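Re: the 130-residue chain
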Amino acid sequence: MINGFEKIVEERIRKAQEEGLFNNLPGAGQPLDFSQDAQIPEDLRLPYKILKNADCLPPEIALKKEILRTEELLAQMPDTAERYATLKKLNFLIMKFNATRQGSARFDIPQHYLAGVTERLSSGQTKTTR
């Protein structure tokens, strides 16, 4: 529900749009610059900038990057023993990632085998590979 003040503001914005007052504004059609971090509280801007310049990432983001690197490495490995060790590492990283999250990670990390498993289960195949 819009209160009285918001209704007045919305009406004035709509009227200005109809009159073309927002046409040809400086920066129109160009991407917004979020590097100024206006949404970050003023007392946190300097620490965030220092961390960003030092390439420090939140643990969850660093873990996601390591998972992606491990997946890429696994895809290029020809040796079965190395692939098994790397797969164990990947499973551990995904388990660690899932444990640190509040919600489900299935939307963040693609489950590459889900389609194949679903297809096999729906077709009744029970083929196992080792």
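The chain is about 60% helix and 0% strand.
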